[in-house]
Structures are given as structure tokens and as C-alpha cells.
Model the fold of this input.
Amino acid sequence: MATADGDRPGAQQWVPEGAGLPALREAVQACRGCELHRDATQAVMGEGPAEARLVVLGEQPGEREDVEGEPFVGPAGTLLDRALADVGLDPAQVYRTNVVKHFRWSGTRGKRRIHQSPKAAHVAACAPWLRAELAELRPEGVVLLGATAGKALHGSSFRVGKSRGRLGEWPERIPTEHPPRWVLTTTHPAAVLRADDRDAAYDALLADLRVAADALAAG
Ligand code: URA
Ligand code: SF4
Done:
């Protein structure tokens, strides 16, 4: 679907200033910051406790998330929760969200809609929602799941493989009043599910998450 840039004013005008998480969750449903709202069931805002010390950042809601209105409730989310628990992090204490709040898809396979990764322009249009969430949460650390989240923070040339599992500083290109103390990239749980060697991919995910768990434990 070709869309003129004029159809992507960006989310800023729909983001209520200084609003808490519940108000953001309500306001996002009205967002027309880009064209993705048109083909999605609803927007999916982040979910988790306001006092969460850790934010996990994915790409966009998937098919299940689009229907249920909650992030990470499908197969990738189930794997993510297991991995968090396996490194000693209580999944219920983690705030999970996505760089894009509406499901982008094109075509169907049987009854399933086929996921399409958001473009950089969608990520840029949607960024005000993420900034508002982070301003409210002020987490200590952020874990980036996969290339879309990595590029959203570190720029389009970012590659997961080169820097995964290492604590880095919050990038200056994303200004925030209270930047998280560290940011760490790992693979996306959906990529673990697709991997030829799932056990190895899962172990690598755990190794990365352990670094995040240790950083939180060190406070
Ligand atoms: N994958 C994501 O990146 N986010 C979700 O919410 C679900 C699957
Ligand atoms: Fe707004 Fe983001 Fe949805 Fe686009 S994807 S309409 S910017 S909430």
C-alpha cells in the first residue's frame, strides 16, 4: 500500500502531555500518526508495573497481540516470559512494549495475517509514544529485542550480532530527561522460535538476559 508522507504526521499531537500510563493507553487508540492504524484491530500500548526497573522493547504487536490488545501474549511472549524467569527475573515485574503500537501486516496465509516489519518511517512516527512511556517509567535498564528495536535506538546501520549481550549507554540521539542507566540488545524471541537450532538460540538469549539481570542485581 503506497502512502504519501502526508499520511504520517507522527504521533506527537495525540500524546497527552505529562499523562500517566493509563491515560497513554487510552489516548493511543485515537492515534492517526501514520497509516498503520487503518489495517489493525487496535493499538497495543506497553504493559507492566509503573515502578518496573526493566523495560523490554520489541518491534510491534503480532497477530494475537492485535486481537487481544496486550503486548507479548502470543508465542514470542510466552518464550520471553520463560527466558526472563530462567534468569531469575519475575516477568510480572517487567514492563514490555514495542517501538510501533499498531500491527503491520500484508496478505494472509490461511486465516493468519502475514506480519510485515515496520519501516523506519513508522518507527519514527510512533516514537513519541515510547518517549512518553519512558518518561513515566524512568527504568534503570532497557533490553532491545532484535533489529527493529536496535535500529530504533542506535540508527539504521545497527546490527544485533555485533553488540548483543553488552551493556551500553543510552544513545544521545534519543533525548530523554531521565535516561536509563544502560541499554542492552539481544535477539528477538520470535527469531529464537524460527532458529534452526532453537536450543542454542535460546541459550544465547539467556546469556544476554543474564547480563541484564546482573546489572539490575548490582543496582
Ligand atoms: N513481537 C513483538 O515484537 N512484540 C509483541 O508484542 C509481540 C511479538
Ligand atoms: Fe500512531 Fe504508532 Fe499507530 Fe502509527 S503505529 S497510528 S504512529 S500508534
